[in-house]
From TrEMBL, chain A:
One term of GO molecular function: ABC-type transporter activity
Protein name, entry field: Transport permease protein
InterPro entries: ABC-2_transporter_component, ABC2_TM, ABC2_TM_bact-type, ABC_2_transport
Protein family (similarity comment): Belongs to the ABC-2 integral membrane protein family.
ABC transmembrane type-2 domain sequence ranges: 22-249
Coiled coil region boundaries: none
Source species: Micromonospora inaquosa
Keywords tagged on the record: Antibiotic resistance, Cell membrane, Membrane, Transmembrane, Transmembrane helix, Transport
Locations listed in the record: Cell membrane
Gene Ontology cellular-component terms listed: ATP-binding cassette (ABC) transporter complex
One family name in Pfam for this protein: ABC2_membrane
One GO BP: response to antibiotic
UniProtKB/TrEMBL annotation, chain B:
Keywords, alphabetical: ATP-binding, Nucleotide-binding
Annotated SMART domains: AAA
Species of origin: Micromonospora inaquosa
Pfam families in the cross-refs: ABC_tran (PF00005)
CDD domains: ABC_DR_subfamily_A (cd03230)
Top-level taxon of origin: Bacteria
Record PROSITE patterns: ABC_TRANSPORTER_1 (PS00211), ABC_TRANSPORTER_2 (PS50893)
GO molecular function: ATP binding; ATP hydrolysis activity
Protein name in UniProt: Multidrug ABC transporter ATP-binding protein
Cell division listed as a keyword: no
Keyword Metal-binding in annotation: no
C-alpha cells in the first residue's frame, strides 16, 4: 500500500459520490424514513416494566443493519462498474496496489456511512426518544464498523459477479441469512443448535450483539470489545480475500 | 537492449481459440510503431500481453528489459484501452488528476495532458456528458499523464475529426522525438503511413514487420493498402517449406 495512492483513490471515490446528489440524498434520508416507519409500527405496543420498549430494541439493531445492507449493495455495484467500464483493468496496469483500491473503497464508503449513521442516530435519539444505557457515540462507531463490514463483503462478492444481475443476487445469498440469524427475529440462544452454529459463523451476529451490549450497559463491556474485534477481523479477512481474488492477468 | 519491446514466440488462447499464434518481433525505442490489422486479428490481445494483463499460453514478452507485467514496469508503461476507460461520473480534470496522482504527478501535469489532447475547454465537464470522440481523448489524457517511457495506445484516433487526428499524430511524433516509445494500433491503413515502423497482424500471425518505405518497396506499390493486400496474398499463395517438399515428392 502507498499512502499517496490510497488518499488519491479515497478522494476519487468520494468525488464520484459528490457528483451523484440523488445517491447522497437517498443515503442520508432513507434510514431515517425507515426508522419513522418502525416507530409508528410499534407505537401502540405494550411495554413490560423494566424492559426496553420494542421500538428501542429494534431501532438499535436497525442502526447497525441499515449501513451494513446499504453499503454492501452500493459497493457491489461500484466495483462491478469499475470492472465493466474497463477502469479496473486500467488501474491494475498502473502503480496502484490492489489494497490501495480496496481500502480506498472501505475508507470512502466508511466516511459516507459515518454521516448516514450520525443522521439516523440523531433522528432515533432526539425525535423518537431512543434510550440506550451506553453512549450514542459507541452506537455510531459500531454502525460505521457495520458499514465497513458491508463494504468488505461487497468487494469480495463482486469478484464472483460478472454482471449486474449476478451482483444483485448476492444480497439474498450473503446478507439476508445474516439478517435472519443475527438475533433480531429470534434470540440467538433460543435457536436450534445448527442455526446457532451458523449464527456464530456470521460476522453480522457479533455486530448486532455489540450494539445490544451498548443498549444494556452504561459502560463498554468486555463482550462488546470482543464483538468489535471479531467484526474488525472479519473486515480484514474479507479485504485480504478480495485482494487475492483480484487478478491483474486475465484470459 | 535498444528495443523497448521484444516478443518471442508469443502464443495466446482466448475462449478456446488461438488468438496469437507464435508472434516474434521487436519494437525499437523512441519511435512510433504501428500495429495494423483487421478487426479481430489479435491487436488488442497483443497489446494486453505487452502491458502484462493477458494470460499467455507460451513465449516471452520483454518490456524495457524486464518481463511484461513486472511491478516496476507499471510506473513506466502507459496503456490506453480501446473502449474509453475513464470515470463517467467525474470531470475530465478530476479523472486526469486521479491518474496523475497514481503516477506521482501533480495538477500541472494533469492540466498539460488535458490540453495536449485538445480538451482544455471541456476540462470541467463530466466525462459522461462528452461526445464519444471527446471521451476517448479524455481516456488518452489519462494514459499520457504519467509521462511513461512506453505508451501502448489501442486505437487512439477512432472517431476523431481529421484535424484532431493530425494534431494527435503530431503529438505522438513529438513524444517519440523526446525519447518516448509508442505502440499504436489502428485498423485504418492511412494511419500506417504516419508510423516509423509497422507490424501487420492477420489471424494471429505476423505478416509484416518493417518500415512503411520498405514494405512499399517489397510489395512494389506505393499504396500501403495495396502493399498489405499483396503481402497477404503472397503469404497465402506461397506454400510453407514442408508443403513445398511434399509437393516435390508428389511430383
Amino acid at each position: 500500500m502507498n499512502p499517496r495512492i490510497l488518499a488519491a483513490t479515497t478522494g476519487r471515490i468520494l468525488r464520484q459520490l459528490r457528483h451523484d446528489r440523488r445517491t447522497i440524498a437517498l443515503l442520508v434520508v432513507v434510514p431515517s424514513v425507515l426508522l419513522t416507519l418502525v416507530y409508528f409500527m410499534y407505537a401502540d405496543q405494550p411495554t413490560r416494566p423494566g424492559q426496553p420498549t420494542t421500538f428501542d430494541r429494534i431501532a438499535l439493531v436497525m442502526l447497525g443493519i441499515f449501513p451494513f445492507v446499504i453499503m454492501f449493495l452500493v459497493t457491489s455495484i461500484a466495483m462491478l462498474r469499475e470492472r465493466t467500464s474497463g477502469t479496473l483493468e486500467r488501474l491494475l496496469t498502473t502503480p496502484l496496489g490492489k489494497l490501495d483500491l480496496l481500502f480506498g473503497y472501505g475508507i470512502a464508503f466508511g466516511l459516507a456511512a459515518a454521516v448516514q449513521a450520525a443522521v439516523a442516530a440523531a433522528v432515533a435519539y432526539w425525535i423518537f426518544d431512543l434510550e440506550t444505557a451506553g453512549s450514542i457515540g459507541l452506537v455510531i462507531g459500531i454502525a460505521v464498523l457495520d458499514a465497513v463490514l458491508g463494504v468488505a463483503l461487497g468487494l469480495l462478492c463482486s469478484a464472483f459477479a460478472r454482471t449486474e444481475f449476478q451482483a444483485v443476487q448476492f444480497l439474498p445469498v450473503v446478507v439476508i441469512p445474516q439478517l435472519l440469524l443475527c438475533g433480531l427475529f429470534v434470540a440467538r440462544d433460543q435457536m436450534a443448535g445448527w442455526l446457532q452454529a451458523l449464527s456464530d459463523a456470521f460476522p453480522l451476529s457479533y455486530a448486532i450483539e455489540a450494539l445490544q451490549e451498548v443498549g444494556a450497559h452504561a459502560e463498554p463491556t468486555g463482550r462488546m470489545w470482543r464483538d468489535v474485534a471479531v467484526v474488525f477481523g472479519a473486515v480484514v479477512l474479507a479485504l485480504v480475500l478480495a485482494a487475492a481474488t483480484l487478478r491483474r492477468r486475465s484470459g | 537492449m535498444d528495443d523497448a519491446i521484444a516478443v518471442h514466440d508469443l502464443v495466446v488462447d482466448r475462449g478456446g481459440r488461438r488468438v496469437l499464434d507464435g508472434i516474434s518481433c521487436r519494437v525499437p525505442r523512441g519511435a512510433v510503431t504501428g500495429l495494423l490489422g483487421p478487426s479481430g486479428s489479435g491487436k488488442t490481445t497483443f497489446m494486453r500481453a505487452v502491458v502484462g494483463v493477458q494470460l499467455v499460453a507460451g513465449g516471452t514478452v520483454t518490456v524495457l528489459g524486464q518481463p511484461a507485467g513486472t511491478p516496476a514496469l507499471r510506473h513506466r508503461v502507459g496503456y490506453l484501452t480501446q473502449a474509453p476507460s475513464v470515470y463517467a461520473d467525474l470531470t475530465v480534470r478530476e479523472n486526469a488528476r486521479y491518474f496523475a496522482a497514481l503516477f506521482g504527478r501533480g495538477r500541472a501535469e494533469a492540466d498539460r495532458a488535458i490540453s495536449d489532447v485538445g480538451l482544455a475547454e471541456a476540462a470541467g465537464q463530466l466525462v459522461g456528458t462528452l461526445s464519444g470522440g471527446q471521451r476517448s481523448r479524455a481516456s488518452l489524457a489519462c494514459a499520457l499523464v504519467g509521462e511513461p517511457e512506453l505508451v501502448i495506445l489501442d486505437e487512439p484516433t477512432v472517431g476523431q475529426d481529421p484535424v484532431l487526428r493530425a494534431d494527435l499524430w503530431a503529438r505522438f511524433h513529438a513524444m517519440a522525438a523526446a525519447g518516448t516509445t509508442l505502440l499504436v494500433s489502428s485498423h485504418v491503413m492511412d494511419e500506417a503511413a504516419r508510423c516509423d515502423r509497422l507490424l501487420l497482424i492477420r489471424q494471429g500471425r505476423l505478416i509484416a514487420d518493417d518500415s512503411p518505405a520498405a514494405i512499399r518497396a517489397a510489395a512494389g506499390v506505393d499504396d500501403l493498402d495495396e502493399a498489405f493486400l499483396r503481402l497477404i496474398r503472397a503469404g497465402e499463395a506461397t506454400p510453407t517449406s514442408t508443403d513445398a517438399t511434399d509437393a516435390r515428392e508428389t511430383a
